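Q: what does this look like with zinc ion bound?
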Amino acid sequence: MLIDSHAHLEMPDFKKDLEAVIQRAKESGVEYIFTVGTEKKDWKRALEIADSHPSVYAILGVHPHNAKEVDDQTYPMLKKLCRSEKVKAYGEIGLDFFRNLSPPNIQLKRFREQIGLAKELGLPIVVHDREAHQQTLEILKSEKAEACGGIIHCFSGDDEMANACMDMGFYISIPGSITFKNAERCREIVKRIPLESLLIETDAPFLTPEPFRGKRNEPSYVRYTAQRVAEIKKVTFEKVAEVTTKNALRVYRLNV
Ligand SMILES: [Zn+2]
Ligand SMILES: [Zn+2]
């Protein structure tokens, strides 16, 4: 059994064949998919998909790209939606200083606020960090994010960052890009992260692993990431599947 700990099934890329995508995941052994609604127009859709599929759960929050869109209604609306039993985490929240689609100072403010909101809701957080390792770590520490815990998704930091996050009780999630030819540095870091702290994800429709790089990503492909992690850590595919599944069930508090 595998879990895709992070995908975006509500995105238009899956509009035409969502049922087939979910079915293929099941056939590939992907028992659960966590779909992440990153902005207002996607929250209800993500929840709708989760509500209508026993194998899908939702994660809701304001992505750093959308930080500038937060208004008076945003948090009350999220609070309401996050009370659904199908919502298992708050996110993805954090910092993206690579694309800077929202001004950095606003990203910092919204990240802090939303850690507070997640704590209030009693949910773990899913953190997006791109080209902002130092600042992400500083905020996680100063906002005492260890109180809610969660996941650093699409991890791209170094050993120091990984260790600091694990010290705070966070899990580190590895996407399909671990299969890329130029991901040697990332593979070296994964080698040193204990399997007990790892999750695997697709971030579908993005970051499609080899051998499908260039095509749309989908949850069934999470097995290629599991396979690669198994090779890196010199353990069996089954072991990676078993431990990462256990980790995901624990962080999302799924009693199955
Ligand atoms: Zn992300
Ligand atoms: Zn994502």
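The chain is about 40% helix and 20% strand. The beta strands are 2-7, 30-37, 56-60, 87-96, 125-130, 150-153, 171-174, 198-200.
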